[in-house]
From TrEMBL:
Keyword set includes Coiled coil: yes
DUF1899 domain boundaries: 33-97
Keyword NAD: no
Domain of life: Eukaryota
Protein name: Coronin
One Pfam family recorded for the sequence: DUF1899
Naturally occurring in which organism (per UniProt): Cyanistes caeruleus
Single GO MF annotation: actin filament binding
Disordered, as annotated region: 1-21, 455-475
UniProt repeat feature WD, residue ranges: 106-148, 156-198, 199-240
Keywords of the record: Actin-binding, Coiled coil, Repeat, WD repeat
Gene name for this UniProt entry: CORO2B
Stated family: Belongs to the WD repeat coronin family.
Length: 537
């Protein structure tokens, strides 16, 4: 017997209408895909024209898995390729186009620069960390650099091995975290210029760090395949997950939703993302396979729009999702595609976006092969030119909510929010003042950090060690031939230790007809003595 048609159309299976044969036989089935309403379903990516890109930049070829790029509302910083130390460029955002080869650099590190981050409260202060075991704080002059900057406002020595990550506290001024290859995370109070806490719960290299929105919790991904949620001031591990089926590479807090998102690799070596409850890491809420490529997946979360962006290292595309509070949690929206592979991506803070163009996110894409930094704007299409309040809620500004002493004493406070309606450009009143202190051994929790050195990794074998100020010594020689005869040969030697340096440079140049010249350049600098010698004939 066939049941009568239902009177209420809501009781039908969603895809059928009352009175049709299908609705009588299969009242609960639907063959239509579920339609999901979202104001962000039509978000699209728009790459900047060539004249609005930054061209001619010698982007670093370092294989360390970082972005090598940092952006704020005034400056763009990019780690560059350099010989004999580490350096990065700082370019005002309005200075687009081709950058001159001799453009001034920040070049005070003695090893490769591995990470850079702008202070969220002071636009001209940037932190960098390096293979030379140091963390340095730089104060960029108004209008950008006019000459090479070699003297940092503050030098922080506390790690015994190279430092791979730095992270600013999201609500407290002058609190900085650094993670080194000595498996330690140091919390620095920049008002003192010293570490105030050491987190030593990791058994391998820390791959990623992420604060929650008020900075009361810290999530870390580690090479020991464990995901941890820590209380940074006490160092207590609140939650820990052993990720055997999902090898975590990156982790990010999803705003104040009490959720974490990780990117990593599944047991079948496919790229994968997982969503976690921060209060229970025993099992992920959901896992989703992305593809079978090998590049690291970088996650970026926008707490204002609840959108997640996934960009793979070496990929040309950026996928984006919307994150909901109920299943299925992750809703795929669209994908920005580009043929040029990205080495890393910088992200513009919210107060630096163009609200008149309905821009909700902006990437700065590093294209190593072209020496190009390409801005990519994520735009919500709207017909009206008025301010779109529904896509621009109140967002964290540039005023800190806490002082270092307040945060270290246990106070938590949400970030101070601002509206973007008037095109928020207000300068912060916070000023960075570096403390004056002498260099000495660094003791935290009764342990001298420079004396307790774990075994070196295979990547560090053969690299010069740095300690007690001694940089090392080296010798470079090169020779080449061109056409009819020998074009030249050269020798370059240097030694640097405890404030004294001696460099020697010799060459001979001849081109068939005879000897063109010979030169020797030598100087020694110690206790104020400088000198130079030259010979040419």
């Amino acid at each position: 017997m066939v049941p009568p048609p239902r009177e209420n159309p809501q009781e039908c299976g969603g895809g059928f209408f009352p009175g049709t044969p299908n609705s009588r036989l299969f009242p609960q089935m639907s063959w239509r895909p579920q339609y999901r309403s979202s104001k962000f379903r039509n978000v699209y990516g728009k790459a900047a024209s060539r004249e609005l890109c930054f061209d001619g930049i010698p982007i670093t070829k370092n294989v360390h898995d970082n972005h090598f790029c940092a952006v704020n509302a005034r400056f763009l910083a990019i780690v560059t390729e350099s010989a004999g130390g580490g350096s990065f460029l700082v370019i005002p955002l309005e200075q687009t186009g081709r950058i001159e080869p001799n453009y001034p650099k920040v070049c005070g590190h003695q090893g490769n620069v591995l990470d850079i981050k702008w202070n969220p409260f002071i636009d001209n202060v940037i932190a960098s960390c390096s293979e030379d075991t140091s963390v340095r704080i730089w104060e960029i002059p108004e209008g950008g650099l006019k000459r090479n900057m070699t003297e940092a406002a503050l030098e922080l020595f506390g790690h015994s091995r190279r430092v791979g990550l730095v992270e600013w506290h999201p609500t407290t001024n002058n609190i900085l975290l650094s993670a080194g290859y000595d498996y330690k995370v140091l919390i620095w109070n920049l008002e003192l210029g010293e570490p105030v806490k050491m987190l030593d719960c990791h058994s391998d290299v820390i791959l990623c760090m992420s604060f929650n929105s008020d900075g009361s919790l810290l999530a870390t991904a580690c090479k020991d395949r464990r995901l941890r949620v820590l209380e940074p001031r006490s160092g207590k591990v609140l939650q820990e997950a052993s990720c055997k089926n999902h090898r975590v590479n990156r982790v990010v807090f999803l705003g104040n939703t009490k959720r974490l998102l990780t990117t990593g690799v599944s047991r079948w070596n496919t790229r994968q993302i997982a969503l976690w409850d921060q209060e229970d890491l025993s099992m992920p809420l959901t896992e989703e396979e992305i593809d079978g490529l090998s590049g690291l997946l970088f996650p970026f979360y926008d707490a204002d729009t609840h959108m997640l962006y996934l960009a793979g290292k070496g990929d040309g595309n950026i996928r984006y999702y919307e994150i909901g509070s109920e299943k299925p949690y992750l809703s795929y929206l669209m994908e920005f595609r580009s043929p040029a592979p990205q080495k890393g991506l910088g992200v513009m803070p919210k107060h630096g976006l163009d609200v008149s163009a309905c821009e909700v996110f902006r990437f700065y894409k590093l294209i190593t092969l072209k020496g190009l930094i390409e801005p990519i704007s994520m735009i919500v299409p709207r017909r009206s030119d008025t301010y779109q309040e529904d896509i621009y809620p109140m967002t964290p500004g540039t005023e800190p909510a806490l002082t270092p002493d307040e945060w270290l004493s246990g106070v938590n406070r949400d970030p101070i929010l601002v509206s973007l309606k008037e095109g928020y450009k207000r300068n912060s009143k916070v000023v960075f003042k570096a403390p004056v202190r002498e260099k000495r051994s660094v003791v935290v929790n009764g342990i001298d950090l420079l004396e307790n050195v774990p075994p070196r990794t295979e990547n560090e074998v053969g690299q010069p060690r740095s300690g007690n100020g001694k940089l090392g010594m080296g010798k470079w020689e090169w020779g080449w031939e061109n056409g009819n005869g020998k074009m030249g040969m050269g020798k370059w030697e240097w030694e640097n230790g405890n404030g004294m340096g001696k460099w020697e440079w010799e060459w001979e140049n001849g081109n068939g007809d005879g000897r063109m010249g010979m030169g020797k350049w030598e100087w020694e600098n110690g206790n104020g003595k400088t000198g130079m010698e030259w010979e040419n004939g």
